[in-house]
Write a structure and sequence with these properties.
By secondary structure, this protein is α/β, with parallel strands linked by helices. The chain has one domain: Class I glutamine amidotransferase (GATase) domain (Rossmann fold, 3-Layer(aba) Sandwich). It is about 25% helix and about 30% strand. It has 6 helices and 13 strands. The strands form 3 sheets. It has a 7-stranded mixed beta sheet with strand order 2-1-3-4-13-12-11, sandwiched between helices. The protein has a 4-stranded mixed beta sheet with strand order 6-5-7-10, covered by helices on one side. Strand 5 and strand 6 form a beta hairpin. The two termini are about 20 Å apart. It comes from Streptomyces bingchenggensis (strain BCW-1). One of its GO terms (cellular component) is cytoplasm. Its EC number is 4.3.2.10, 3.5.1.2. It is found in: Cytoplasm.
Length: about 220
């Protein structure tokens, strides 16, 4: 690269399947230097350097919308090729095996075993700023202080991490926890698949640094 030349921005697609704050995610990613596109086009989303899957609302409705947009195939195809995917909020929840809301059970993408269920807390939804406990070797939280706070809006979460890795040749996922009434999974780093229960696009400087960390892996 010649002196003074700029490195090309990473191409990130925010997948628009009707269930996410796509404009907020677009602005946050552009702010940290990504070349961002909002689309539900399968081929463009497949070809991007990174795919961000947002999500708001009910687990079952999000899964229905994702399947109708072929998002389940898209996520599977990208991960099979080792191509980065990041889920946010319900976009993280649907990566697990199943979700139960108001007695209704729905199947997720089952990238990780586990159940999304209501938090056992004095007050739900969990709405506002909270700290997290990340592994020391986390790439997602690199450069961030332990007292950094992130913005959560949810009533449901994964309360128990069920995936056990016994093969020493396979790297176990890095799991970050938060507490609201009880511990719950706040983020996961698993090869090309990363996810957060909180909203980095609404988490100020800490969220921006986290998104930069993700872009640096693309």
């Amino acid at each position: 690269m010649t002196a003074g030349a700029k490195k090309a921005a990473k191409k990130v697609v925010v997948f628009d399947y009707g269930f996410g704050n796509v404009r907020s995610a677009e602005r946050a990613l552009a702010h940290v230097g990504a070349d961002v596109e909002i689309t539900r086009d399968y081929d463009r989303a497949t070809a991007a350097d990174g795919l961000l899957v947002p999500g708001v609302g009910a687990f079952a409705a999000c899964m229905k919308g994702l399947r109708e947009a072929r998002g389940d195939w898209l996520v599977g195809r990208r991960l099979a090729g080792g191509r980065p995917v990041m889920g946010i909020c319900v976009g993280m929840q649907i990566l697990f095996g199943r979700g139960i809301e108001h007695g209704v059970e729905a199947e997720g993408l089952d990238e990780w075993p586990g159940t999304v269920e209501q938090l056992n807390a004095p007050v739900v939804p969990h709405m506002g700023w909270n700290t997290v406990k990340a592994p020391e070797d986390s790439q997602l939280f690199a450069g961030l202080d332990e007292d950094a706070r992130y913005y959560f809006v949810h009533s449901y979460a994964v309360r128990t991490w069920e995936l056990e890795v016994t093969n020493p040749n396979i790297r176990a996922p890095k799991v970050t926890w938060a507490t609201h009434g009880e511990p719950f999974v706040a983020a996961v780093e698993n090869g090309p698949l990363w996810a957060t229960q909180f909203h980095p696009e609404k988490s100020g400087d800490a969220g921006a640094q986290l998104l930069r960390n993700w872009l640096d892996t693309l």
